[in-house]
């Protein structure tokens, strides 16, 4: 696994998994966590590919997927930008949280916890 710093972002690339999915997920989490400001211009496909040492087609595929999700927007002649829509970010956060809860419920059920036991466990957890 390679850890690559790109400005304020840190990419952890595992070459045994699809790289474009990892790039997508990294951007999604960074946008959701506020590590990337809304409306910020991203690196060009070529520049990010060069820094990450991946094929430009890999980055292009990730950017296209993020654009389909309305998290990126391409402005002809100006580059690619992170969405400026807080509503889209709120939807992304909700989606990521729903996925995390679903994974948690599946795991906790597999080790025999009931819903009430899981709720108690969550309430006892530290949120700091």
Write a structural description.
- The chain has helices at 19-32, 45-52, 56-68, 86-110, 115-124, and strands at 2-6, 9-13, 72-75, 79-82.
- By secondary structure, the protein is α+β, with helices and mostly antiparallel strands.
- It folds into two domains: 2-84, Winged helix-like DNA-binding domain superfamily/Winged helix DNA-binding domain (Arc Repressor Mutant, subunit A, Orthogonal Bundle), CATH 1.10.10; 87-124.
- The protein has a two-stranded antiparallel sheet. Strands 3-4 form a two-stranded antiparallel sheet.
- β1 and β2 (9-13) form a beta hairpin.
- α1 (19-32) packs across α3.
- The longest helix has 25 residues, at 86-110.
- It starts with a strand and ends with a helix.
- The model has no long low-confidence stretch (mean pLDDT 93).
Brief rundown of the structure:
The protein is of the alpha+beta class and 128 residues long. Helices cover 55% and strands 14% of the residues.
Write the layout of secondary structure elements.
Layout lengths: L1 E5 L2 E5 L5 H14 L12 H8 L3 H13 L3 E4 L3 E4 L3 H25 L4 H10 L4
Antiparallel strand pairs: 1-2, 3-4
Helix pairs in contact: 1-3, 1-4, 2-3
Ends apart, CA distance between termini: 29 Å
CATH domain fold name of the largest domain: Arc Repressor Mutant, subunit A
Strand order of the largest sheet: 1-2
Uncertain runs are none
Largest sheet geometry: 2 strands, antiparallel
Summarize the amount of helix as a percent range: 40-55%
CATH homologous superfamily label of the largest domain: Winged helix-like DNA-binding domain superfamily/Winged helix DNA-binding domain
| Portion in beta strands | 5-15%
Helix segment tally: 5
> Would you count the extended β strands for me?
4
In sequence order, what are the helices and strands, one letter per element?
Answer: EEHHHEEHH
| Mean pLDDT over the residues | 93
> What is the number of independent domains?
2
Q: Mind telling me which CATH architecture of the largest domain this is?
A: Orthogonal Bundle
For this structure, what is the CATH class of the largest domain? Mainly Alpha
The shape, in one word, is elongated
